[in-house]
Amino acid sequence: MSQNLRIPGPTPIPPQVAEALGRPMINHRGPEFAALLGRVTEQLQYFFQTTNRILTFPSSGSGGWEATVVNLFNPGDAVLAAPIGVFGDRFAKVGETFGLNVTRVETEWGQANDPQAVVEALSRLPEAKGVFLTQNETSTGVMNDIQALATAIRGVRPDILICVDAVSSLSCVDLQMDAWDLDIVLTGSQKGWMVPPGLAMIGVSERAWKAHEQSRMPRFYWDFTRVARTADKGQTPYTPPVNLFFGLDVALAMMREEGREAIFARHQRCAELTRERAVAMGLELYANPAVASNTVTAIKTPEDIGAKAITKALREREGVVIAGGQERLDGRIIRVGHLGYVHEPEMTACMDALERQLQALGYQSPASVRG
Ligand SMILES: Cc1ncc(COP(=O)(O)O)c(C=O)c1O
Fold first, then answer.
1. Which tens digit of pLDDT belongs to each residue from 132-170?
2. Quick one: which atom of ligand 1 is closest to the CA of 169?
3. d(CA 341, CA 353)
């Protein structure tokens, strides 16, 4: 049985991309790779909505956090982190690991950042050099309003470094790096980009480059200057994951053909379908519905049926693979991914399967109990 892979990344690969991934190897220091790198970078700029440089690293998304910290900051620098779940918290921890003085704005999980709370926290931290934000918190299924946050932050701190983790959202929902004046935007290939894991992509603003020049943090692999200088020659400093570039090139061409706004609309439709079906089953969304994500839906598990029983039944009886909760949400929620190569039929099939298996596990929706 072919799997309906509905975790929030890695995501399914379109057949055209799968074909490209298997192409014969080329010289990564030759003209074909130079052309490929140039083409991919230009297409990425379209999706980041920026004219800034975009650097690529052979890495998962987490490398983007480390690259941000070691390239822009110095040990002892104050930053404000605004985590709303597991991934935002890890971004903050990476800062702490490298000796940054991290202050957290606390937000209840399931909610988005309140721009006013972030501004108030900044007013108590005048020395802050950067802010760490997450556009889409994959662990809670919450989407932040980055435009509103950036506008509020710039209102009080015009020159602060705004660093945005857009790992599980970029290319699926709107993010305008230039218009919203963001300094770092980082993402990973295995989410909305429809390619396997292994490539981190990072947009770097002029302000971020200036901070980079002042940063004395030890770095080698992640050094922006080395990557940028080599990119000018159509290369990467170390061996790139050539096949992932083949795949990304094809995926980006498919995405251009579909169109940015059409992709955003498709993600919104798939997300709405998923949320509506969950609510119709009598299930409760974990995220505040007003800020629910368009790429992943977190659903509270019925009290008497554990998340593990649901994910197991779906996987074994339906060939549908969804995710459970992480850390403090382990066992309390299930998460359904709808990002990248996804259309309504896969989401309908996933939610049909969920309904069947919940019934098989003895679930009675509150409506049916009342009725
Ligand atoms: C929002 C967010 N940030 C960062 C990461 C870390 O990315 P990776 O697992 O590719 O290192 C993830 C992974 O799921 C994520 O969802």
1. 999 999 999 999 999 999 999 999 999 999 999 999 999
2. 1
3. 19
